[in-house]
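explain this chain.
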Amino acid sequence: METKTSLEMGLKERGISGIISILFLLIAFFIIFYSLYSLSQSSVSYIQSSLQREEMSQKASELSRSVSGFYIFYPDTGTISINVTSYFGEPVTIPRVIIIYSNGAAMLSNYLGITLQTGKSISFNVSSSEAPSSVIVALYTTSGVQATLPIEQSVQTAPKTSPPPFSPLSLKMNNTVLFDDFSTDPLASGRISALSGSWTWSPGILSVSPGGSSSPSRENIAYLNLSSYGFQAPLPSKIYVVTKVYQNDFSGSYADIVFLSSDSASSLYRAGAYYQNKNNMQAELYKYMNNGWSQLDSGNNIGATSPVILEAYLEKGQSYANLSASVLSSVESSTAFYNDNNPLSISYVGIGSYKSMNTSFAFIYLSKSMDPLYVYIMGFPSSYTIRVLDSDGRIYNVNYDSTIGMFEVYLFQDPSSFSPVLRNALVLVYSGSSLVSSYYGDLWGGCVYSP
């Protein structure tokens, strides 16, 4: 009887152990499945975001063509009477009106919030102390489509010469590889991996702090998992990387953009900002291979400050690599260049710091072929005038570059406010005094817009 009891006890114990083992296997399987699911969802989200931007651009053009209007100015009352008709396939809201004067000044009306149904017309008034040269109606729909509508003044006789036909701007060349503003945790989601050093996230900021593992180069590195953004290797042959750096250590430290040959960081390029002391800083380029650093080039000295914008450029061929690093402060800039005839093979991009455990980054933006400090507008002769304003009414510099046959909108004004994506921008294109094109929406650095 005792022998049977012992046997039963042993079988029960084995049964319990088997059940526990199965439970552990199920838990491990669930963790692996959830991780793969989360990574795939990040990739799908990025691809869907790119497709949605293209679709919105097409719908914005359709919205501009489906709405028409005119205005009459009454100088005795200082009133602009506006009439708008819509044949767009869904209700259209008019949030504001932009009034342009002959001296180039622009004024935004108070918020209107007028909703216009399909096939209907509506009239409303806005105040103006003088006659406008152009009136532009801002439009948006509940599905998120945004556009602008220039309207003509109602006159009894036609002008002696007809202005060029109006054609709205839209995105024609999307050069954005990825944009991560760190609004969500890129470390937890797997978008960015910490290779060395201790990296922490807070909304909008990715920081390196004391602790963590060390790489052979002693550089603290966090690199991008490009596939999680929906981008497939290899990297473009010409790539720009831009980030915003907050530095709290001004004594012989570096804040860098890094180009890695592998995820072990056994060889890499470092394009960075070197903080010599509290008064001086400069752009610098370094190469790490065979367990040693080589300085490639250094830029001019500028005043040390924080934050700064750091931009790196890499053009890669079979037998060469052209590199540059630029540091932009609010008043000056420093740039370093180098042509490497013994180039590294580059597979990864990341951010890093050297001799500093107190460095933060606000975003990272990758663009192929075109500099993301600029937005490019093509399809107009150099004699045309283009004005670009942000949602606060700030005006951005626009110049015509004859070497590429495009207008360039310089997005950088100061490091604190800079973003490679100018949200809710207004673009106005003039031939003489005639408004021939416009755009209302986001402008993406490095991208090309045209009618």
User: Anything to note?
Assistant: Confidence is low (pLDDT under 50) at residues 156-161. Helices lie at 2-66, 186-189. Residues 163-175+370-451 form a domain with the Immunoglobulin-like fold (CATH 2.60.40).
